[in-house]
Design the sequence.
């Protein structure tokens, strides 16, 4: 098989470092022992036609192997899991349930967490951001409570570590500075177990080492405006 | 094979009728010609332990067939698509790309649309709801513009109708009263093509006919409060 090529950014703001979605793809590739190449994009070039031909929404990651080009981190991780051993159980029912947890991570647990990111970063200097935050947090807390209840004191969500755990840990890590996961010690320990895996450490190191580029023109002015908004 | 059993609500508020997520599962089952049974839940019982044993987040739908129990509409539709002919291409690359569009629907296009639903319904009477709406709408418009550019004048997203189109049409239908999809005539036509499919019509009719129950205690008071907020 030819060596897959993924895309990643050569620069992101500090709050996004270690959280860009190529991380989950790198992690999956590391778990299955597959080496890969990275094509780095400078900020702005992800919206150019050349990249949009591979990623219609102008984002990362993409995954290319031979003639196959995929986008969406969930779809890429599932493709890797289905074509290599190690990230899905062998029995069909167990596989279906591991995939179920991938969708649960991305479509049930993540959306309120994305909303938190919007409120805490993108809309931070908007007048509605602080008044709205308790409602945003309450929606996350409901999901985390449900998830903690299901996980209970198990090591992983359904048997052995799977692509479902990989995606769920990836989603929960987005809350790293909020204290919301830490309110559930069993969930915090679950995230710690995931991020202690050697494959995760290699993936994170690789993403961090890839940030060798420069911010786009105008970023410094945007950052200053954000800081003023926060101080106001 | 035993006949699958799904769960659905026996009552929802008018704004949710025709949009509850068992619809996509019914649609997939209709597309592949599979008959099914429905276990209806009254409002409130979805949060009881008996249902949470099948659905940890206390929602619908679930899917049970023999010993296999699944939740998450995306995972259920994918399971149906993978175990029956008609919703995924035969070639592995085409299958991977159809699954990519399922994830794109649920993790890239839907989250800002969910946010719109929160702003327009759940937080409708909150002081921040109207000031925030332009930012919410702008995030949806960016996604719809990207999607329309990729679809161009094609009939479906990637070759023949697939589970990816089924999920994408299901997500776009949530914007039915907003006018946002209609701003892109090719996208509106795409949704119309999807909802004109006989399997979709049967699924929608079945969901609507299932609403034979009563609102939970307190709903009338909540509705009145919402109406007052809208009039204020």
Sequence:
């Amino acid at each position: 098989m030819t060596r897959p090529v993924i895309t990643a950014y050569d620069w992101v703001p500090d709050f996004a470092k270690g959280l860009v979605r190529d991380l989950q793809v790198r992690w999956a590739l590391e778990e299955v022992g597959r080496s890969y190449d990275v094509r780095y994009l400078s900020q702005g070039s992800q919206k150019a036609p050349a990249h949009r031909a591979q990623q219609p929404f102008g984002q990362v990651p993409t995954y290319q192997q031979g003639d196959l080009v995929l986008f969406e981190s969930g779809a890429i991780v599932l493709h890797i899991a289905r074509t290599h051993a190690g990230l899905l159980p062998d029995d069909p029912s167990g596989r279906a349930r591991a995939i179920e947890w991938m969708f649960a991570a991305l479509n049930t647990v993540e959306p309120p967490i994305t909303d938190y990111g919007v409120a805490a970063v993108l809309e931070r200097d908007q007048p509605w951001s602080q008044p709205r935050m308790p409602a945003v947090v309450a929606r996350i807390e409901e999901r985390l409570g449900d998830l903690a209840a299901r996980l209970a004191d198990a090591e992983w969500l359904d048997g052995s570590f799977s692509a479902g755990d990989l995606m769920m840990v990836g989603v929960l890590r987005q809350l790293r500075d909020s204290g919301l996961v830490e309110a559930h010690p069993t969930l915090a320990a679950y995230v710690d177990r995931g991020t202690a895996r050697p494959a995760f450490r290699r993936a994170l190191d690789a993403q961090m080492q890839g940030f060798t580029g420069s911010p786009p023109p105008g970023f410094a002015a945007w950052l200053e405006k954000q800081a003023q908004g926060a101080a106001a």
Q: What stands out?
A: The interface with chain B takes residues 52, 56-59, 67-68, 70-76, 78-79, 93, 96-97, 99-100, 102-104, 106-108, 110-111, 114-115, 118, 123, 126-128, 131-132, 135, 143, 146-147, 149-150 of chain A (CB under 8 Å). The first strand of chain A starts at residue 5 and ends at 9. DSSP finds nine helices and four strands in chain A.
